[in-house]
Write a structure and sequence with these properties.
alpha/beta, Nucleotidyltransferase, domain 5, five-stranded mixed β-sheet, 8 helices, about 15% strand
C-alpha cells in the first residue's frame, strides 16, 4: 500500500418502506443524511481514528419507523446530539484531511445531494470501492445486493463482535475487515 493513511466511510440517510425500489421518488422522499461514520487506517490497515456524527434532517425531521427499525437510530438521539449538515460535513472534511477516501457504493453522490439541499457547493468527492469488491470478492460471495455491513460476514473475514448492519460506523468496520481479508488473499490494493 502506498497511501500513508486511508479513510473508509459510510452514511445512513432517511428512508421509508420501498424507498430503495422507488429510488426515493415517492412524495417527500429525499436521502437526507442522518449519520456519517468513518475510520482512518494507517498504511498497515490498523485503525487509528473514528468519526461518528448524527445529523438533524430538515426536509423530514421526523424519522420514519422504517428508518428507526433499520438503523437503530432513534428520534431522541438525533434531537439530542444531531448537528446541522454543514457542521457535520465541515468536521468530516477535517477528519479526512488529504487521505484517500472511499465508500462502498455511491455515498459521495448522497453527500452532494445534501450539499445541494443546504445550498452548499456540490464539491464532495470520494472513491467508490464497490466495483473493487465485486471483482475481487466475487469468489467469496460478494455480488450486487450485498450491503456494506454484510461484507465481512459474506467473505468470511475475521471481525471481533457482530456488525450492527445499517449503522454507518459498524458498516465501516465491515468494509475494512473485508478489505483486509481480500488483500491477505492476494487482491491488489485499491489505493
Amino acid at each position: 500500500m502506498t497511501a500513508r493513511s486511508i479513510v473508509f466511510y459510510d452514511t445512513e440517510f432517511t428512508s421509508w418502506e420501498g424507498a430503495l425500489a422507488r429510488d426515493w421518488s415517492g412524495p417527500g422522499e429525499f436521502r437526507e443524511i442522518v449519520q456519517i461514520g468513518a475510520m482512518r487506517f494507517d498504511a498497515d490497515l490498523q485503525m487509528v481514528a473514528t468519526f461518528d456524527m448524527l445529523i438533524k434532517p430538515v426536509k423530514n425531521p421526523v424519522l420514519s419507523d422504517y428508518f428507526i427499525q433499520l438503523t437503530g437510530i432513534r428520534q431522541e438521539q438525533v434531537e439530542r446530539t444531531g448537528v446541522p449538515f454543514a457542521e457535520a460535513l465541515a468536521q468530516f472534511r477535517d477528519f479526512i484531511g488529504t487521505a484517500p477516501t472511499a465508500s462502498y457504493g455511491g455515498d459521495d453522490s448522497v453527500v452532494r445531494e445534501n450539499q445541494e439541499l443546504h445550498a452548499l457547493p456540490t464539491d464532495f468527492t470520494a472513491l467508490n470501492i464497490g466495483p473493487w469488491f465485486m471483482m475481487h470478492g466475487a469468489a467469496y460471495g460478494v455480488k450486487k445486493g450485498v450491503n456494506s455491513g454484510a461484507l465481512a460476514r459474506t467473505v468470511g473475514a475475521p471481525l471481533e463482535g457482530a456488525v450492527a448492519e445499517h449503522n454507518a460506523l459498524e458498516d465501516v468496520r465491515s468494509i475494512a475487515a473485508a478489505y483486509r481479508f481480500l488483500l491477505a488473499k492476494g487482491a491488489p490494493s485499491f489505493f
